[in-house]
Amino acid sequence: MDYGDKLFWLSVVIQRKYAQIAAGFELTPSQATLLCAVRNEPRRMADLAASLGMTKNALSQLVDRTARRELVSRASSAQDRRVVMLSATPTGKVLAEAVYAEVAKRLPEIARNLDADDQRDFERVATAIVDTSDLSSPTSNQPITP
After folding, report:
1. Beta 72-76 vs 84-88: how paired, if at all?
2. Which pLDDT score is estimated for 133?
3. Three-state DSSP class for 114?
4. Closest CA to 133 of 53, 72, 68
5. Pairing state of beta strands 43-44 and 72-76?
6. How far apart are CA 112 and CA 72, in angstroms?
7. Residues forming beta bridges with residue 85, ordered by sequence position
8. How far lies 45's CA from each of 29, 42, 81, in Å?
9. SS3 of 138, please?
10. Are 107 and 117 in contact (CB under 8 A)?
11. What are phi and psi of 14, to 5 degrees?
12. Which residues form the HTH marR-type domain (predicted)?
């Protein structure tokens, strides 16, 4: 397998582990991601769509499904009524914090078979990749759907 294949399979390993964690909270991976994205403060829907690499319509559908569970709520911005803000409800915030804590605890398990030095290298490289990535906009021209 070449480097691209390895990265592909690494993404599968990460996505599978993340899906298992989300399922433990009776959430889809998309719902878990949405909750974690708004757990600390309200976010503009347009900004969320860009950050998550989703179309506005796909995000709206995801928000509708999550709002039916009373985990998120929409509101107009106080500064500009055309802007829609999304925030976690009190129940959603508690759930988001629990999901986030579980992800932080269990996602590193993907590196459990590495020795201590390789685990530190993996953490360093993963941190560098995230820190140098532009998460404010989609990384491709192909938005994903939930």
Report:
1. antiparallel
2. 83
3. coil
4. 53
5. unpaired
6. 34
7. 44, 75
8. 18, 9, 13
9. coil
10. no
11. -65, -45
12. 1-131
In Å, what is the CA distance from 61 to each residue of 49, 109, 143, 145?
A: 11, 32, 14, 9
Beta bridge partners, 54, equal 144
Q: Which residues of the chain have pLDDT under 50?
A: 137-146
Please say whether the beta carbons of 51 and 38 come within 8 A. no
pLDDT of res. 77: 79
Q: Do residues 143 and 25 lie in contact, with contact meaning Cβ atoms separated by under 8 Å?
A: no
- Say how many CA atoms lie within 13 Å of 82 toward its Cβ: 0
- Chain-centroid distance, C-alpha 142: 17
**Per-residue model confidence as pLDDT tens digits over 110-138:** 999 999 999 999 999 999 998 898 765 43
Is the Cα torsion angle 60, 64, 70, 74 positive or negative in sign?
Answer: positive
Measure the CA–CA gap between 33 and 50, rounded to whole angstroms: 14
- Residue type present at position 28: T
